[in-house]
Every structure is written in C-alpha cells, then in structure tokens.
C-alpha cells in the first residue's frame, strides 16, 4: 500500500486533508511533535513523532513515505527544508504554498534535486486552475479582472505565510499588460459594494502563481489583466506592520510570541464572520464574436477547499511519472475540480457557491 506523509497533521488543515484520504487505498502517516487527537483522523492514519528541525527525524519520516505533503508553517521560513529531505529520501514532495519559487536562490537550491509539486492549495492552487479555465474560453482577451480574498480568522502562522509570500521578488503590486508586469501604487482602493454585498477594500497584486499562468500565453492573447486581493478588515495589514517592526529585533520564538499577543488584541472576528470569494470576469473574442465569461466561487472559509486541493494533488502525484523538476499544481489539477468539490461540500453540508457563465454579445 502506498504511503502519504502529512507533515503538520495537527494544524488547521492537516486533519481535513487526512479525512479526504479516508476512502483511498493509501496509508496516511501524520508527522508532528505532539500526539494528535486520534478521534479527528480516519482509520488509515497513524502518527509518527516528528520534530521538523531534527534533520535525522525528518529524513527518517520522509523515507517511510511515497509522497510527502507539507502543510507545516511558516512555509516562508522553512522554505526548501522539507522538500530537500523528501528528495534525499526518494519521496515525491507536495506543498500547499509556492515557497519553493520564492526567489532565484531558493529555486537554484532545489532545481534538479527531486520531484516537487507546489501551490497545491486554494490560493495559490485552485485560483490558477480557474484562471486558466477562463482564459481557454477565448481566442483573444481584451480585459481580464480577478478578485480573490475575504475575511477569515487566521492563526499566527497563517498570517506569517500571507505576509511573507507577498515579499517575494517575483510578486509585484501591479498588473499584467501585453506580456509584461507593470508596477503601480501599493495602496488600497474601495471596491463596489454590489460585488460582494459589503464594504470591501482591494489592492492590485500580481502574485507568483498568477504571473506564471499569464506568461505561458502569447503576448497578444491577453491584452491586460488586473488582479485584486480583497478584504473587509485590516488584520493582515496590521500584522504586517507589526511583523516588519519586530522581525529584525528578535529570534523567531520571541517574534511568534509577540505576534500571538498582538493578534489576540486586534482580532475581533468570530468564525460566523468569515467569508471568501474568487471572482473572475473576462471580455474578449471567440471565433470573431464578442464574449464575456464570469466565474465565481463563494465560501465560508478556505480551509476545507485548501485541504481538498492538497489531498487531490497528493493522490495524483502518487500516479504520475514526471521527470525531476518543479511543477505548478494548476498545470496538473483538473479544471473540473470545482464540480467535484461541490459534491463533497453537499455530502459534508458545507456551503459552496459556484458559478460559471458565458455570454455572447448579440
């Protein structure tokens, strides 16, 4: 029986990932320091003690696995540590983040070392799949606008990953035009309240995954793309300010403690206040006809869908025979993944709004 290791099995999405693997013909090995609550896990789960900072323990854990799925954080401090241990052990590596593409130095340290599947979550991950689904509906796109984000109750580690991912030199506060990234101001703008039914702020941001998708197409295919990160509160913004005030003054453990205290002070949301949306609108030509495509996903929060994407990628990775290299999950996950996920949501009683509409101008 094939074995999938889940590092960070006791985190926010770890148990959900494991339960999405319940009916698969795999053994799940969960790795973390503390013994988990086994009532949260399926019958095909076992726990193995793992201190991710102990190189021998990490290599031993990876050596037991065919696929290592890493959902431990903060990803942008660990960077390639787990990926290289997986490669040395001969295991395939799956990451819910795109930390391996953070900068050229990280890329150079992992290139040619193993088989790595990255950005196997919701954003990045399913966002890239959905962007490609929209683009393929056209012969030429004149305008492409995307909105992604919401308001969720984040852990400190989640906040750190969001903040640090945005500091990648491969990301810009800007947009895409005629095949090139264009920088713009980094301030927030007000969003039309009709779009999301509430007061929302938005900021243009061309992330690593989105740019990797857009630049695969001929320059004359997509004239312009504006992508906005959206939010209805400023928790991440305040946490980012605090992080940059403290990060050079203390070690990580002190930093984590200070940020935990600060997050408790500023976070006023409850799970009932959470929401998340992905909305893409494109206008262009198909067979010389003017066409509009609208795609929208509305969720209560992104934990479950991130876990579903990660579990799906781990299962696919077990069966693929790719060469050594770094692969974006959006190149591998099915464009029909939302139809499959909606069925899972119905079974679990989870809200999932999904729309995909095409309109031709008369």
Q: What order do the helices and strands come in, and which of them pair?
A:
Layout: E1 2-7, H1 14-20, E2 26-32, E3 45-49, H2 55-63, E4 67-70, H3 75-78, H4 81-89, E5 92-95, H5 104-110, E6 115-118, H6 126-135, E7 140-151, H7 156-165, E8 174-177, E9 180-183, E10 189-190, H8 193-196, E11 201-204, H9 208-214, E12 224-231, H10 235-246, H11 252-266, E13 275-286, E14 289-299, H12 303-319, E15 325-328, H13 337-348, E16 352-360
Would you give an account of this structure?
The protein has 13 helices and 16 strands. The longest helix is centred in the C-terminal third of the chain and has 17 residues, at 303-319. Strands 7, 8, 9, 10, 11, 12, 13, 14 and 16 form a nine-stranded mixed sheet that branches. The chain has a seven-stranded parallel sheet with strand order 3-2-1-4-5-6-15, sandwiched between helices. The model has no long low-confidence stretch (mean pLDDT 95). It is α/β, with parallel strands linked by helices and 362 residues long. The radius of gyration is 20 Å and the shape is globular. Helix 1 crosses helix 12 (303-319), helix 2 (55-63) packs across helix 4 (81-89) and helix 7 packs across helix 10 (235-246).
């Amino acid at each position: 029986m094939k074995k999938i290791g889940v590092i960070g099995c006791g985190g926010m999405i770890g148990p959900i990932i494991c339960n999405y693997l319940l009916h698969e013909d795999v053994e799940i090995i969960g790795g973390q320091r503390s013994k988990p609550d086994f009532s949260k896990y399926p019958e095909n789960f076992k726990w193995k003690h793992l201190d991710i900072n102990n190189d021998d323990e990490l290599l031993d854990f990876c050596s037991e696995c065919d696929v290592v799925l890493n959902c431990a954080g903060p990803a942008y401090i660990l960077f390639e540590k787990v990926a290289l241990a997986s490669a040395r052990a001969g295991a395939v590596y799956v990451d819910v983040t795109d930390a391996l593409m953070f900068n050229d130095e990280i890329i150079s340290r992992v290139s040619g070392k193993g088989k790595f599947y990255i950005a196997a979550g919701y954003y990045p991950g399913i966002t890239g799949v959905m962007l490609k689904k929209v683009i393929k509906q056209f012969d030429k796109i004149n305008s492409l606008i995307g909105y992604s984000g919401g308001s969720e109750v984040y852990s400190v580690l989640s906040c750190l990953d969001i903040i640090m991912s945005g500091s990648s030199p491969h990301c810009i506060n800007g947009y895409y035009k005629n095949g090139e990234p264009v920088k713009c101001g980094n301030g927030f703008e007000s969003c039309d309240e009709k779009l999301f039914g509430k007061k929302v702020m938005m900021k243009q941001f061309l992330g690593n995954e989105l740019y990797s998708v857009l630049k695969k197409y001929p320059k004359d295919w997509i004239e312009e793309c504006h992508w906005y990160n959206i939010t209805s509160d400023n928790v991440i913004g305040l946490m980012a300010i605090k992080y940059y005030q403290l990060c050079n003054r203390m070690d990580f453990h002190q930093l984590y403690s200070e940020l935990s205290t600060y997050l408790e002070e500023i976070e006023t949301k409850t799970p009932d206040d959470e929401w998340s949306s992905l909305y893409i609108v494109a206008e262009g030509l198909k067979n010389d006809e003017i066409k509009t495509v609208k795609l929208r996903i509305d969720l209560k929060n992104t934990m479950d869908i991130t876990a579903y994407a990660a579990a799906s990628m781990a299962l696919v990775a077990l069966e693929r025979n790719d060469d050594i290299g770094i692969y974006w999950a959006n190149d591998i996950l099915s464009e029909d993944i939302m139809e499959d996920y909606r069925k899972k949501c119905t079974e679990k009683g989870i809200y999932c709004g999904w729309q995909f509409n095409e309109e031709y101008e008369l």
